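Help! Submission page says 'invalid entity' but I think these are all valid:
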Amino acid sequence: KAGVTQTPRYLIKTRGQQVTLSCSPISGHRSVSWYQQTPGQGLQFLFEYFSETQRNKGNFPGRFSGRQFSNSRSEMNVSTLELGDSALYLCASSREGANVLTFGAGSRLTVL
Amino acid sequence: AQKITQTQPGMFVQEKEAVTLDCTYDTSDQSYGLFWYKQPSSGEMIFLIYQGSYDEQNATEGRYSLNFQKARKSANLVISASQLGDSAMYFCAMRSPSGGSNYKLTFGKGTLLTVNP
């Protein structure tokens, strides 16, 4: 059974650019959540999607956005990148009604 | 507001010994879930164990057990017979309220466990 797949695994951008990260959930999982992990702030919730609708949103500026497609795959976008956006971005998926969230390996973004 | 506190930034344990990683939580919800995840240096978050607030028995998964003390709001992870491969960062997390459409996890700062041979 394939796990949660995140692409790309590593990327380097410069300030002011934008980036799009992709997450393919486990087959049958319709909930997809995104988290940002930095050394200073730890793990912080970005947003969660279910059936192409954003259900929950964390406390991040509008530069951070996401979407979910009909096949449950999700993308998140960060526009006008800042140095502080350098982080590991983790995606997690879950079956509706399940307790456990399964995480992917993450996308490590470096902003120069 | 929900909060998870892990007071041990780092822990050391000898191979084959048991170790306890501390976690305290705060929430005003009656229904919540507590998780432990392991994060090796590769970055992936690996689910270890789950405890629901209404579960009367402490959760166990192989060498992992969760010491759940509801009145003290603590959910400590016990790893028995430590192995070198257990060296990693360990995160305690909470989903509060649990169930419904809430899939947001609140994480602690983590504990870096080092297993010595």
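Support: the input was valid. A stray whitespace character was the problem, and the output above is from the cleaned input. Chain B touches chain A through 26 residues (CB under 8 Å).
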